[in-house]
Design a protein that fits this description.
heterodimer; A: alpha+beta; Ubiquitin-like (UB roll); 3 domains; 5-stranded mixed β-sheet; two-stranded antiparallel ribbon; globular; B: alpha+beta; Glutaredoxin; 2 domains; 4-stranded mixed β-sheet; about 45% helix; binds iron/sulfur cluster; binds FE2/S2 (inorganic) cluster
Chain lengths: ~220, ~150
């Protein structure tokens, strides 16, 4: 694999093809803040907290460092006034959903974000997708996914799968930057009938009003 | 109103059970049943080897899909600005009275589902109501209920 040199915060960094900016920075000990990034998962780019300024081919742009590939000769700035402002607003927006999330509180402190700037909509989830992607990509169980769209999008367990797989796994819990997942899990568990009391095998499983007598 | 699983299989086979045809298959099932019964979704997941969380993501994303039973006939009343000014609310009220359901609901016999839309793009015909894709323009509130008489 070919190696090349780029510059991050004034440091010369040797990177390999296919590395993202976050990975290249990490190799020389430069920490770029991330929330939705996870080493074991495919790059996703949901939270944008990792936004950096990258200059390549004479163009300076704002890119998400966790998905953007490092390029030869690129000049990257990870801490500028402009970036601090962007990250501050992002944190403020996420805090409308999860005002007490430890990782957000930490970032808020660092960037001077006001946790009460935006009206609260305490979904306790910032849709980072860590739980969903971990379950899909690493565990390959697909027990959890997204439902709905736009401002109503949320995570949801698939009861049929969750009932079988989640109890002995729960590996996604500690990944959650807001601990929303725990709540969601408990909720589904509460909603789902315990296995032994699950819908009768006989009859049809449709949700018509025939109470299982047809079919 | 139980679902015929062999018919679902047939729809799936019509699309060669291809994963890339997932949305098309769901649309076909939706068109036939007016909603997507869980049993049908389970079958699709199994035959296409697509995880249920992806199916849920898709079926909750697009408004064309319903995961609750819908009536045999879909009534859409346009509430866009032009229709609104021309009395769409009255039309909606009359339809609500005639069917006994509010916008977004389906009656117990699964005959009608009533829905509002925000513009159908034919403002000159306002107020407009659509039943099963058939447009009825310039409907006076008094006529609105009569239109429904043509549907069984
Ligand atoms: S529940 Fe937590 S891990 Fe899952 S998407 Fe929401 S914030 Fe991310
Ligand atoms: S860490 Fe890069 S977008 Fe979330």
């Amino acid at each position: 694999m070919s190696e090349f040199v780029l510059q991050i915060d004034g440091k010369e960094v040797t990177a390999r093809e296919g590395m993202t900016i976050v990975e290249a920075a990490k190799s020389v000990g430069i920490r770029i803040p991330t929330l939705c990034h996870h080493d074991q998962l495919e790059p996703y780019g949901a939270c944008r907290i990792c936004t950096v300024e990258a200059e390549a081919n004479g163009r300076n742009q704002l890119v998400a460092a966790c998905v953007y590939p490092a390029e030869k000769g690129m000049v990257v700035q990870t801490r500028t006034e402009k970036l601090a402002k962007i990250r501050k607003v992002l944190v403020e927006q996420m805090m409308a959903h999860a005002p007490d999330a430890p990782q957000l509180l930490e970032l808020a402190e660092e960037y001077g974000a006001d946790r009460d700037r935006f009206e609260k909509d305490p979904s306790f989830c910032i849709l980072c997708g860590l739980c969903v992607r971990y379950c899909n990509e690493v565990k390959k169980k697909n027990a959890i996914g997204y439902i709905d769209r736009g401002p109503r999008r949320e995570i949801s367990f698939i009861p049929d799968v969750a009932g079988k797989e989640c109890w002995d796994c729960k590996e996604c819990f500690p990944l959650c930057p807001t601990s929303a997942l725990q709540a969601a899990y408990v909720l589904t568990e509460a909603l789902a009938a315990p296995p032994e009391e699950a819908a009768p095998e006989a009859g049809c499983a449709c949700s018509c009003s025939c109470s299982g007598s047809c079919g | 109103m139980c679902m015929d699983i062999t018919r679902i299989d047939q729809i799936i086979d019509d699309h060669n059970a291809e994963q890339s045809s997932l949305i098309q298959i769901l649309l076909d099932i939706q068109a036939e049943h007016h909603w997507l019964p869980k049993q049908a979704l389970d079958r699709v997941a199994e035959k296409l080897d697509v995880p249920m969380n992806r199916i849920q993501h898709i079926t909750t994303f697009y408004k064309a899909f319903s995961q609750v039973p819908k009536g045999r006939h879909q009534i859409h009343v346009c509430m866009g600005t032009a229709c609104h000014v021309r009395g769409a609310q009255k039309v909606l009220d009359v339809l609500s009275d005639a069917t006994g359901i509010k916008a977004g609901e389906t009656d117990a016999e699964l005959k009608f589902s009533l829905e509002t839309v925000n513009c159908l793009g034919c403002c000159a015909l306002g107020p407009v109501m659509v039943v099963d894709g058939e447009y009825h323009g310039n409907v006076a509130p008094a006529q609105a209920a009569d239109v429904l008489k043509n549907y069984e």
